[in-house]
Amino acid sequence: MSSPLRYESQVRTALVEGQKDYHQVTEDIVRPIEAAPSRLWWIGFLISVACLLFGVWSVTEQVIYGVGQWNLHRTIGWGWDITNFVWWVGIGHAGTLISAILLLFRQGWRTGVNRAAEAMTIFAVMCAGQFPIWHMGRVWLCFFIMPYPNTRGPLWPNFNSPLLWDVFAISTYFTVSLLFWYSGLIPDIATVRDRARVKWRKLMYGVLSFGWTGSTKHWQRHESLSLVLAGLSTPLVLSVHTIVSFDFATSVIPGWHTTIFPPYFVAGAIFSGFAMVQTLLLVSRKVLKLEQYITLEHIEVMNKVIVLTGSIVGIAYLTELFISWYGQNKFESWAFAQNRVNIFSPYGWAYYLMMGCNVLSPQIFWFRKMRRNLTVTFFMSVIVNIGMWFERFVIIVTSIYRDYLPSSWATYYAPSIWEVGFYVGTFGLFFTCYFLFSKFFPVIAIAEIKHILKKSGESYKEKMDVEERMPVEEFAHQYAHAH
Amino acid sequence: MAVKKFVVGIFTDEAVLFPAIKKVRSAGYKIHDVYTPMPIHGMDHALGLRETSLHTAGFIYGITGTTTALSGIGWVFNSDWPVNIGGKSHFDLPAWIPITFELTVLFSAVGMFLTFLYICQMAPFVRKHHFNLRSTDDQFTMVIELTEKSNEESVKAFLQGAGATGINTQVAETGWWLGRYDKDKTPFEHKGATLA
């Protein structure tokens, strides 16, 4: 008998495949946590740690010898570091979008992917934060950016500066995403705790589960908490990349000084974030054998988001190009026509790489067959993130490498080994965290899958016919329960 | 905190659980709690619980954040250290909106999360009695408190009739204590249950 509490159209495809009951869901999702890590996991983990160590070494060099270890110079004060910062923050947008905005829009498919996407968000924001912090040079004074009564006056940070808005935006985003992720994780950690047979497992998951029991009152409050956090995170996720774009848009540099930046940055962030979710989940579902929970349907829906946001980004590129000509500002049109669109200019190649990866190639996802092809999806998810990295590179570097003084034009900016090492190091940090997460925590929200199981599970959808044929009044009458 | 005696009924299908709750409540038994592996909508109504006010707390924390940001920035720019930035206004509200918004969200989220933990009595190293370890897996556990008016055997028989697949009696501490889940020690020796 299907549950009296749920009703869903037969037209929708199942979100959980196979004959599952609640216990089977727990078994499937907790199995990778309880089993010993595979050889593949160890190889991936050790490579990540190696990258992380290279990053630590690169940053150590930079702290000892100064920011001069990077190839930044007049006029390029922001190079790979801020490009990487914006890129990682952008990637960090998909998780909260999936968990918050899709929760408010009642998209059932989010339950399969939200936990991993939220984890990815948190790790990506951690990586992003490294760049502005280490760029400060005297990093031991980084607490100067926080407003607190100090002996320097007290001298306050400039609350009217977009760079300070960014400090608030990113730290708030990180904190709220972490709380959202962890509050959802608590019931699932309790599930792992109650199955634990080994002492250290009972201890670790016991401490992390905060003593969760599954009481009805607690669930009621938990639902309320999730809903309000989703409501708060929805404008938050849009505000974060908006404020990142203000770093550029409120300046007077040709190429940065554009009012289109906030929506354009947000669309780009969702675009690259979903691409990274695809990259991670295509591997995770295979390695952890979760194909029945992260189904082709999930992959296809995310590809639709990718083609939508990719096209929004494309419109934005064309709009700013048009406006640079229509606006008839010589400096602005120089920045676009000469520094970017001119393929023979020093960075012309980067502009076309960006256009190709972000605007043209995602159009392949108009075809259903391509959206459901795993190889194509994986390949595209990497292409999109390469393209989005170049978007930020094009915006930052091509706007500032030729300033108003032609005598400083000659130097071609290319990163030093320590800049590259720092970037590689953040990949190490990101994947080290993700490998640990996938080993020790359920990568799929167990309780949320159980919540939709009898509505969207394959075996339950098959049994739904009787209720579907009932008139609404009869359905309500038969299944009305006491209040 | 008190040690009490409970009859525990285990259900495997929420479609059986709902009518069972109705029957148990109308028979006048006192349901201590129902433990479920996932949120079940309508369960709080079925148990007669009132709506949570957690979101109201969230709103109050939120406006506290708004006020903190506006008054803090306003005080710094107008009274504590008024900087003349090209003769621009010291009361520059549009430029304060991003930080005001962020602090509103931050205060609300952190406040609500901590309040949630506090009212649910949750924290690291907090231990509670678990009536059925599978109620975080696939079983629904209805716990009925035995009072002076209720007879253990009749409650058990009643639960049997209501469709419970497993029934047992437990003497348990209702509150929380500091402890670890790898050690089965209870916080004290119990001297027997009190029947309210």
Please state the CA-atom Rg of chain B, rounded to the nearest Å. 25 Å
Q: Based on CA inertia axes, which overall geometry of chain A fits?
A: globular
Point out poorly predicted stretches of chain A.
1-6
The ordered H/E elements of chain B are EHEHHHEEHEE
> How would you name the CATH homologous superfamily of chain A?
Formate dehydrogenase/DMSO reductase domain
Fourth-level CATH superfamily of the largest domain in chain B = Histidine kinase CheA-like, P2 response regulator-binding domain
Low-pLDDT ranges of chain B: none
Q: Classify the fold: give the CATH topology of the largest domain in chain B.
A: Alpha-Beta Plaits
Q: Tally of extended strands of chain A?
A: 0
Tell me the CATH architecture of the largest domain in chain B: 2-Layer Sandwich
The helix/strand class of chain B is alpha+beta
What oligomeric arrangement do these chains adopt? Answer: heterodimer
Average pLDDT across residues of chain B? 88
Number of domains of chain A: 1
Q: Enter the CATH topology name of chain A.
A: Formate dehydrogenase/DMSO reductase fold
Query: What is the highest CATH level, the class of chain A?
Result: Mainly Alpha
Overall shape of chain B: elongated
**Count of all domains of chain B:** 2
Structure description:
The complex is a heterodimer of chains A (483) and B (196). Chain A has helices at 22-34, 39-65, 80-91, 94-104, 110-135, 162-195, 199-208, 216-249, 261-287, 296-326, 330-341, 348-360, 368-371, 374-400, 417-440, 446-456, 458-462, 465-469, 472-479. Chain A has 483 residues and is mainly alpha-helical. Chain A has a single domain (22-147, 163-403, 421-461), classed as Formate dehydrogenase/DMSO reductase fold, CATH 1.20.1630.10. The longest helix of chain A has 34 residues, at 162-195. Chain A starts with 21 loop residues before the first helix and ends with a helix. Chain B has 5 helices and 6 strands. The longest helix of chain B has 27 residues, at 54-80. The relative contact order of chain B is 0.28. Chain B is an alpha+beta fold and 196 residues long. A 4-stranded antiparallel sheet of chain B has the order 2-4-1-5, covered by helices on one side. In chain B, strands 3-6 form a two-stranded antiparallel ribbon. Chains A and B meet through helix 1, helix 6, helix 7, helix 8 and helix 16 of A and helix 1, strand 2, helix 2, helix 3 and helix 4 of B.
